[in-house]
Amino acid sequence: MRTQTNPTTVRRFVDPEDLICPGCGEQVRCAPPRLLACRGRAPVPAFSHPDATALCRTPAGILAEPIEVTR
Questions:
Q1: What are the φ and ψ backbone dihedral angles of 17, each rounded to 5 degrees?
Q2: Can you point out the beta strands (E) in the chain?
Q3: How far apart (Å, rounded) are the C-alpha atoms in residues 14 and 52?
């Protein structure tokens, strides 16, 4: 059985070099922050700033997820 794919169903992987922090615009690194005071059972973030600090917080107070920039 052959499956058809089209551009909308093909999974695209993101190059880590294209990820930035949405709060400050710094490039992110693919490693958790070095020091992070987690509240409750919040998951540990997978990304951090180049200096190993947590990504900026959103206006709601939660840690932001990185965003992809196109070059």
A1: -65, -20
A2: 19-20, 67-68
A3: 21
The amino acid sitting at 56 is: C
> CA 51 from chain center: how many Å?
15
Sign of the alpha-carbon torsion through 64, 35, 18, 25: positive
Burial letters for 31-61: b for 16+ Cβ neighbours within 10 Å, e otherwise? eebeeeeeeeeeeebebbbeeeebbeeeeee
CA distances from 39 to 22, 36, 42, 63 (A): 22, 9, 6, 12
- Distance CA(47)–CA(32), nearest Å, equals 5
Instruction: Tokens for 13, please give them.
Output: 């992987």
pTM: 0.71
Render pLDDT for 35-70 as a digit per residue (tens, 0 to 9). 766 566 678 889 999 999 999 999 998 889 999 998
For β-strands 67-68 and 19-20, DSSP reports them as antiparallel
